[in-house]
Design a protein that fits this description.
globular; 12 helices; mainly alpha
Length: about 210
């Protein structure tokens, strides 16, 4: 708990329950979820304080939350995790962007990963990622769809930067672009360490 108590942006009491869960399970999942939730909620609160640009910032944040929610649901369904546990992990299921709460809840309650793909195909994301979703239900790998979702967010971030070059939105867009850059670098490093073919590594990069 020494590290958690030293965090300046959060009170340890907000993490106590998650820390107690860590002591029992020795996994950091709940601590990570709580930290993510606190960061997103404070960013949304910050956006509400900015009258002119706040709506745009909120839109970008909600988009990021929703994409992370979709990826989390897919990963957990692949591992046959119960809806109750998924609901705890997907701490932001009350925040939506292109999905309705009912659609997100249906995906959480879905019996199988294949059912989630079927439900996702009926939403905005089904039209946007039709190629990636095609045949996805027959395989366990989520890499193609996850890369497409990250690429979608990256291009949205770049569009924010170009549309509002002098606003706070550019900071959010820049930060997300940098996050993707770090992910790409880590993928390259890991691929080199494992002596993976360069063509395969290139397919794993978000561009």
């Amino acid at each position: 708990d020494e590290v958690l108590r030293k965090l300046q942006f959060v009170d340890f009491e907000e993490l106590r329950e998650a820390f107690e869960a860590y002591q029992k399970t020795k996994t950091l999942t709940q601590i990570g979820n709580v930290l993510d939730q606190l960061v997103w909620e404070r960013l949304l609160r910050f956006a509400s304080l900015i009258p002119e640009e706040g709506a745009l910032i909120k839109e970008f944040l909600l988009m990021g939350i929703e994409v992370e929610n979709v990826k989390s649901i897919l990963r957990l369904k692949r591992e046959d995790v119960s809806p109750e546990t998924i609901r705890e992990v997907v701490a932001f299921h009350r925040y939506t962007h292109k999905l309705t709460r009912e659609q997100l809840e249906s995906m959480i309650e879905a019996r199988t990963l294949k059912d989630v793909f079927t439900l996702l195909a009926q939403t905005y994301y089904g039209k946007t990622f039709e190629q990636q979703l095609s045949g996805m239900a027959e395989q366990k790998s989520l890499i193609g769809l996850e890369l497409a979702l990250d690429s979608y967010m990256l291009h949205k971030a770049i569009r924010f930067i170009h549309r509002h070059p002098m606003s706070v939105d550019v900071i959010l867009g820049f930060l997300f672009a940098k996050e993707i850059e770090v992910k790409n670098l880590l993928a390259i490093i890991k691929g080199k360490q494992l002596r993976v073919d360069e063509a395969f590594i290139e397919k794993a990069l978000v561009v």
